[in-house]
Amino acid sequence: MVFSFDLAVILQGDTKRTKRRSKVIRRRRRRDICKSHEPLLEIPLDLVIEIFTRLPPKSLMRFKAVSKLWSSIVCSQYFTNLSSSPRIYMWLGFDEEKILVSSSSSPDLDSSFVIDQDLTISAMKGYSVSHVYRGLMCFTNGTNAQIFNTTTRQLVVLPEIEESNIIAEEYKFRKVIYRIGHDPVHDQYKVVCIVSTHNVRRMEHWVFTLGGGVSRQWRKIPSPCPQHSPFTQGLTMNGRMYYLGLVPDLLSPVFVRFDISSEKISVLQNVEDAFWCRYYYTEIIEYDGKLAILDYSDLVKDGVMELWVREDEEKNSWSRKTLVLHPSHMNMVKMHIVHNMSLRVQGTTRNGDVILVPQHITGPDDQFIVLPQVTTLFYVFLYNLQKNHLRKVYIKSNRYNTKRWDVVGFDDIENFMSL
Q1: What is the mean pLDDT of the chain?
Q2: According to the model, what pLDDT value does residue 181 have?
Q3: What is d(CA 37, CA 113) in angstroms, rounded to the nearest whole number?
Q4: Residue 159: what pLDDT?
């Protein structure tokens, strides 16, 4: 028994000494590891950002958890603006089901887009895409709305606008429009909701701020006069959202500006002689870094478009330019755009190309109905206004075979913000 006790004491002492040695070794290893990683702290910030821009989204999502610095870099607006490749977003119809896909540009000089992502999730069923902006996508179903981050695949359901009188009174005919914008002053994304009655005698404007640490409620802001109903997709640039709106009893629409930072709405002076055109063939676009209005009502028929460019905002100074398609470009359009078909503007690329999407048009001119394209060939036209050059770009897919499809947006941003 004595031998056994002494042996136990000895073994216990050895165990304690072993543990002490292990702790010393671990401390030395940690010190050595820290020393070996110290040079990483000296990597210039611009080089770190350059490395990050070359990484896929999945890797960047993991790196956000490494440190607050890395997380702030990845989620910063500066980094967001650096990425990524242009993407066309499309709905594809299969019987009663619709799926959402995106197509990236191929490396062969952008001569085609290639479908490489299926973004469909079950929560999207019954919803349609109303706006795509900087990696964020707005889905709507009546008065309900959801925001989907196309990079992180995070989906949030926006609360109902409970204080809206127009929604509460359940008008049989009402219009609800959702748009996403970015506030550059506070680096925040906001959702703007415009609610109006069918006769546009009443309207409301609501704002919701996305992201953590902010109030999760809609805020009502004063609506401008005259009362109007937006009819263009609108454009957001330099912290402001612009759109054209129809006013009852007026022959021409109004030009509306919403400042995303101050949340103030202004009805601007119209462009002289610019609004005689049919409103559903008019869109606000960005042209050479400036705000512009494009009238393409005569594009398919005569190959002509009218472009108004705002040269000076304070003076409301605009220049007018008539664009005429080259005969070879016109023949290409007529070859693919047949009877009861037209083209719809779906944004512009960073290269200044206007995206023209083929559409089926039914009904008389005053009550026309736009339907998705019905063909197994997926394609769009890219029209460079400065070079007056039009080209057809195919959207390639080896997986999907459907005759019903529509382009719902274009974006070239990867957004890592948390909704």
Answers
A1: 79
A2: 93
A3: 42
A4: 92
d(CA 329, CA 384): 12
Q: Where are the domains of the chain?
A: 1-30, 43-83, 121-270
Q: What is the pLDDT of residue 83?
A: 56
Q: Cβ(285)–Cβ(294) under 8 Å?
A: yes
Who wins on pLDDT, 9 or 17? 17
Residue 193, pLDDT score? 94
* pLDDT for the residue 401: 81
Neighbours of 363 (CB within 10 A): 10
As a residue count, the chain comes to: 419
* Segment 141-146 long-range contacts (CB within 8 Å, at least 24 positions apart): 142/176, 143/167, 143/176, 143/195, 145/178, 145/191, 145/193
Stretch among 25-34, 160-169, 222-231, 317-326 having the lowest mean pLDDT:
25-34
Query: Quick count: other Cβ atoms within 10 Å of Cβ 413?
Result: 18
Which of 43, 83, 125 lies closest to 417, judged by CA? 83
Other C-beta atoms lying within 10 Å of the C-beta of residue 331? 11
Three-class secondary structure assignment of the chain: CHHHHHHHHHHHHHHHHHHHHHHHHHHHHHHHHHHHHHHHHHCCHHHHHHHHHCCCHHHHHHHCCCCHHHHHHHHCHHHHHHCCCCEEEEEEEECCEEEEEEEEECCCCCCEEEEEEECCCHHHCCCEEEEEECCEEEEEECCEEEEEECCCCCEEECCCCCCCHHHHCCCCCEEEEEEEEEECCCCEEEEEEEEEECCCCCEEEEEEECCCCCCCCCEEECCCCCCCEECCCCEEECCEEEEEEECCCCCCCEEEEEECCCCEEEEECCCCCCCCCCHHHEEEEEECCEEEEEECCCHHHHCEEEEEEEEECCCCEEEEEEEECCHHHHHHHHHHCCCCEEEEEEEECCCCEEEEEEEEEECCHHHCEEECEECCCCEEEEEECCCCEEEEEEEECCCCCCCEEEEEEEECCCCCCCC
Residue 170: predicted pLDDT: 65
Q: How far, in Å, CA of 195 to CA of 177, rounded?
A: 7
Buried b (16+ CB within 10 A) or exposed e, 292-307: bbbbbbebbeebebbb
